[in-house]
Design brief:
The protein has a single domain, classed as Alpha/Beta hydrolase fold, catalytic domain (Rossmann fold, 3-Layer(aba) Sandwich), CATH 3.40.50.1820. Helix content is 30%, strand content 19%. It has nine helices and nine strands.
Amino acid sequence: MTHFLLLHGSWHGAWCWHKVLPRLVAAGHTATAIDLPGRGRSPAWAPCVSLGRMVRAAERALAPHTQSTVVVHSRNGIVASQLAELAPDRVARTIYLASFMLPAGRRVLDYVPDRASAIAKHIHVDRAALTDRLDPKLYREGLYADCSSDDVALADAMLVPEPIRPALARLRLTPARYDRVPRSYIRLTEDRAVSLSLQDQLLRETSVDEVADIRGSHSVYFSKPDELTQTILHLAR
C-alpha cells in the first residue's frame, strides 16, 4: 500500500483531485490532497505566502510512519522539488504532472512566459496584492479544453488568485538530498497551459527514471481520471 500526497497547481486547490483521490483509495492505497497556503481551506495573506511556507505545509501532510509518493501538477512542481530536498527520507518518489520540474538555482520566472502556451498573454499580475490570476475567458481553452461543462463550471466557482512570491524563489537543491528521491514525469501531449515544448525542455534539464504520456489537456484529473490514476500507479510501482 502506498500513501499518495497530491499537490495542486496554480489557482487551484485540493478540490481538483476529487476524481483521482477516490480512485487511488479504491485501488487499495491511501491518499491525501491538501490546499496549499492561500488556497481553499488554508487561507493566508498572499504577501506572506513564500515557497518555504508552502513546502512546510506539504511536509506536514506526508505520511508519519512511511514514505509518501508525491504527485504534483503544473507550477507547483517547485513545491515538490523543494520538499524532496527537505525530507528525502520521507518521499518515495515524485511524479511531476505537466509540472515545473526545475534545476537547482532556477525559478518559475525563468521559464515564463511560455511562448507556446495559450495562456501566456492572459495572466494578470496584481503587484499590490502580490498575486496573479488567469483571465476567465481562457479557462476552457487554456486549462480545460477536453473537460466537461460541469468541470469548467466547478473550476469557475473555485479558482482563486495565486500568490506570486514562490515563483520568484530560486530552488535550493543538492545531489545528496534532492537526487536521492526518484523522479517520474507525465507529459500531457495536448496541454495548452504548460506547453509540450516547455515540458520537453524541463525533461532535458532534469533527469527522470521514467516518462509517461497522456493524450490530454492541462486538467486530465478532470477529463481522464481513470487513465491518470493508472499512470500514477504504474509510475509508483
